[in-house]
Specification:
Elements (H helix, E strand, L loop, with lengths): L2 H20 L2 H11 E9 L4 E4 L1 H15 E15 L8 E13 L12 E13 L2 E9 L1 H7 L31 H18 L8 H6 L2 E8 L6 E3 L1 H14 L1 E2 L8 E5 L2 E5 L4 E5 L13 E3 L1 E8 L2 E9 L1 H7 L4 H10 L1
Parallel strand pairs: 1-6, 7-15
Antiparallel strand pairs: 1-2, 3-4, 4-5, 5-6, 7-8, 9-12, 10-11, 11-14, 12-13, 14-15
Length: 336
């Protein structure tokens, strides 16, 4: 029941987090070398993108982050493992989600430090084989950190902004094995939602469509720039409706991993889909070319429907494909 895979990732986190907390950059790299395969694939959101091997990952992401966010702590809200439905359950993945909290003492990505606490929202998928991590998707909400630093990377968002809590039920940390039937039910609920979503052409009014797979008091914990929203009615008005109205030419869904355990599950893609922006989303003008949506979704199921959803979208990458470099704009503001 994936307990060995969980132990591999928990050991990795224990070693990496201790090294990061102490600021020992050599030990950061060493902890990655001990726990990742030599040719491990690592995917991070823009501007990090793809790297191969533990040395490259340490140099590109973890060491610079440790220099900037001192005394870093990992605060997990969800931890789970399962087989990958996309490859007929051949590969096993371990997923964690929460925040990396630290003291923002040095610049990161050109963002000026605040010398105050900041929270970097993250979700990480790790594929484990033969006791090592061989593939990772590490998504994090950089605009959310920007906003904590007093910056406004986007026009005013349609939903609420705050540091997001974990599950309402406080049962997301599944260090022990879960009943297999619960994970099957969760995956079925996620698949039903994906099938309804399709290409936004089910033919039902939006709120009726959502009610097929979501509880009425659903919570959609969206990324900074969009925000979080509560209930089907507000989700339809504050995100789903405006989002669908602002895009066409949506491609089919393309996931690398889709998994579940207990009442939780999720997926990621690289990208999940492409769509052409016709104008208005996040207050931005239309684009000429389809843009890529790199997304992680994590779900909590209650009964036979979905109750909570945490979403990570690489908005910096998407807008860069549309000719708008949000990170460059913010760096200019930070320099002035």
């Amino acid at each position: 029941m994936f307990q060995l895979e969980k132990q591999v990732v928990l050991r990795f986190y224990s070693e990496l987090d201790a090294a990061i907390h102490s600021g020992d950059e050599l030990e950061i790299a060493a902890s990655l070398k001990r726990n990742m395969s030599e040719n491990a694939i690592w995917r991070g959101l823009y501007p990090f993108n793809e790297h191969t091997g533990p040395v490259a990952v340490a140099s590109a992401f973890w060491q610079p982050l440790a220099r900037s966010l001192k005394r870093l702590q990992r605060r997990m809200d969800v931890f789970m493992a399962g087989g990958n439905a996309i490859d007929d359950f051949e590969s096993n993945w371990v997923v964690s989600m929460g925040h990396l909290m630290g003291l923002f003492d040095e610049p990161w990505l050109g963002i000026a430090p605040t010398r105050k606490m900041v929270f970097l929202r993250y979700c990480e998928f790790n594929r484990v084989e033969n006791g090592q991590i061989v593939e990772t998707a590490m998504y994090f909400d950089i605009p959310h950190l920007m906003m904590q630093a007093g910056l406004q990377p986007f026009p005013p968002q349609t939903a609420a902004h705050f540091v997001q809590p974990g599950p309402m039920t406080h049962d997301g940390l599944m260090f022990d094995a879960q009943p297999g039937g619960e994970g099957v039910a969760t995956l079925a609920a996620i698949n039903a939602m994906i099938n309804d979503l399709g290409t936004w052409q089910l033919g039902l009014p939006l709120e009726e469509e959502l009610a097929r797979t979501w509880h009425d008091d659903m919570i959609w914990w969206g990324p900074a720039g969009i925000g979080s929203t509560y209930t089907i009615e507000r989700y339809a008005k504050q995100h789903s409706g405006p989002f669908r109205a602002a895009f066409d030419e949506r491609s089919k869904t393309n996931h690398i991993c889709r998994m579940s355990e207990g009442h939780y599950g999720g997926f990621f893609g690289w990208p999940n889909f492409t769509a052409r922006h016709t104008g208005g989303f996040m207050g931005m003008p239309a684009g000429n070319e389809p843009g890529e949506m790199r997304v992680i979704d994590i779900y909590r199921r209650d009964g036979d429907k979905l109750a909570e959803n945490w979403i990570f979208i690489d908005l910096l990458h998407f807008w860069k494909t549309q000719g708008v470099d949000i990170l460059e704009r913010i760096q200019e503001v930070s320099r002035t």
